[in-house]
Amino acid sequence: MRTNKADSKMNEACDGKPEPIRQIPVHCGADVAITNVSKYYGHTRVLFDVTAGMQSGSTTCIIGPSGSGKSTLLRCINHLEEIQAGEITVDGELVGYRRANNRIYELRDKDACRRRLSIGMVFQQFNLFPHLTAIENIMLAPKVVLREPKTVLRLKAERLLARVGLAGRESSYPSQLSGGQQQRVAIARALAMEPKLMLFDEPTSALDPELVGEVLSVMRDLSATGDMTMIVVTHEIGFAREVADRIIFMDGGRILEEGPPSQVLSSPTNDRAQAFLAAVL
Fold first, then answer.
1. Residue 167: which of 178, 180, 179, 181 has the closest Cα?
2. Single pTM value for the model
């Protein structure tokens, strides 16, 4: 059992000059290392000694059937879920834990939150505050956490809305936006904290089919810059083929296949991966 203690140091983002609208701010990205990670819910084991690595600036897509452990792994990277064995580091630093005297201790909540400031996450559901406008949703976290001046925050938020194709919708409430527009606001909200690592948990699964493309287009633009690390859990195989530097196939809480899209999607060696891809391609 990991002991709850505190000692953290925030990751520092790379300095960068402001970029024009529709481009992504310059960051250095983050290296991610997942080493022998196991996760249990009670007595049920859902991740089995998972090991993987993601290089700074790369895009990794995690695919596989429902219930294979994809979203659980993503949530463990951000310490929204505790792990019972192994470790996960972002730029060499444990997220949610610290190491002392050859033991690993869990951080207190406030210190864990500080340590993952450089990690953004976009969920299946948009989770926007319904009583706040689009621009207020984007401004909220930097205002509370980073305490940036309101004028600076508003300018940044306007640029982010333009970057995700929603210029002019600053005053719209979530109920006045389509599902695809709400998800794009959620992406802009995550970008407002200038993360080095972005996690996407099936960001199009709650959308009507005709709205999927607009969200994938924004994610495609983000990936093309190579300036932040992206890990995407997705069922959109065509999107994974197009944007991923590396694809991971999971089933039963294990990584069964991984490699470049040309290998994993066209010539998988694992029988289970072959069967899954045969059914979805």
1. 181
2. 0.87
